[in-house]
Amino acid sequence: MSWHVLGAGALGSLWATRLHRAGIPVRIILRSAQRLADYQRAGRLTLSEAGRTSLHAIPAELPDATTPIQRLLVACKAYDAEAAITQLAPRLAPDCEMLLLQNGLGSQQSIADRWPQARCIFVSSTEGAYRDGSMHVVFAGHGQNWLGAPDGGEAPVWLDELDRAGIPHSWSSDILARLWRKLALNCAINPLTVLHDCRNGELLHYREQLSELCEELSELLGACGQAAAAEELERDVLRVIEATAANYSSMYQDVRLGRRTEITYLLGHACRSADSLGLAVPRLHALHRRLREHLRQHGLPTD
Ligand code: NAP
């Protein structure tokens, strides 16, 4: 059975090249005839990892190809994922599996609701990759991939293919708790790095602001039934800030490079969830407003 990878960007290429290297059948799905023609001219994806470079002539196709899709890795940004799947929906096998790599929350639930016949597996990844040109991915940071189904369930048998491909992974019985925790860390750190125009480590000058945000985020996690994900949140936020002190956050980099952020699925999702529960989170709302204003001033989408 072949894997189909929708979105050959940073993370999609990282997965596709490792699967291909292990001899596991994989196909990439590109968004347009132009992108497919560009890829066919290059003839392969390039993976750079620890100073080594390898070339991977992975078969590529368009969303409207006709072969059925049994296992789909959705590697688009959160704001593109649902529309991208819609383009190939007629090809989804009745019992297909979709692995959703998106950051934040909200896009995964929309997709699971829209295609109830598919088994959706949510993925929380701490691996890092970036594109250096359209057909070249650089594996920048080793990490882990937690996979899990929102309603629990057994681990799929094909996890051994990830072992063979050297893709680190763990099956999580509570993937939503992992995604909520990651979302809370992101909400506490990333918007402040944008608004204070600083590296992660410099946020230690804003301890009171961090503490107030963590308090509201912990309340929100508790109200969402994610009490375990709220435990010692502030301590974890400070640990991440110290461990990544010299780094610029992903949102900071998106803004600096003029790229759309995933704000709707991060801080936006936190604010919407609080509103739907009638929970007052004035500091999160104020942060969301200031961040959106900042994006507007920089000519970037505010959603
Ligand atoms: P990316 O480099 O921007 O890749 C997204 C890809 O999706 C692009 O190649 C884009 O195509 C493609 N795409 C969008 N709409 C499409 C469509 N309709 N049909 C086919 N392809 C389509 O993004 P990324 O960094 O890999 O991130 C993907 C997700 O993983 C995000 O939610 C991100 O937050 C999460 N994540 C990323 C990392 C990382 O280190 N990169 C780590 C953890 C989590 P074009 O090239 O044509 O625009």
Automatic annotation (TrEMBL):
Matches recorded under SUPFAM superfamilies: 6-phosphogluconate dehydrogenase C-terminal domain-like, NAD(P)-binding Rossmann-fold domains
Keywords noted in UniProt: NADP, Oxidoreductase, Pantothenate biosynthesis
Domain Ketopantoate reductase C-terminal stretches: 174-293
Keyword Oxidoreductase: yes
Short name of one Pfam family: ApbA
Reaction equations catalysed: (R)-pantoate + NADP(+) = 2-dehydropantoate + NADPH + H(+)
Superkingdom as given in the UniProt entry: Bacteria
Domain (Ketopantoate reductase N-terminal): residue spans on this chain: 3-151
Pathway where this protein functions: Cofactor biosynthesis; (R)-pantothenate biosynthesis; (R)-pantoate from 3-methyl-2-oxobutanoate: step 2/2
Enzyme's top EC category: oxidoreductase
EC code(s) of this entry: 1.1.1.169
Function: Catalyzes the NADPH-dependent reduction of ketopantoate into pantoic acid.
NCBIfam families xref list: apbA_panE (TIGR00745), PRK05708.1 (NF004311)
Family (UniProt): Belongs to the ketopantoate reductase family.
Name of this chain's protein: 2-dehydropantoate 2-reductase
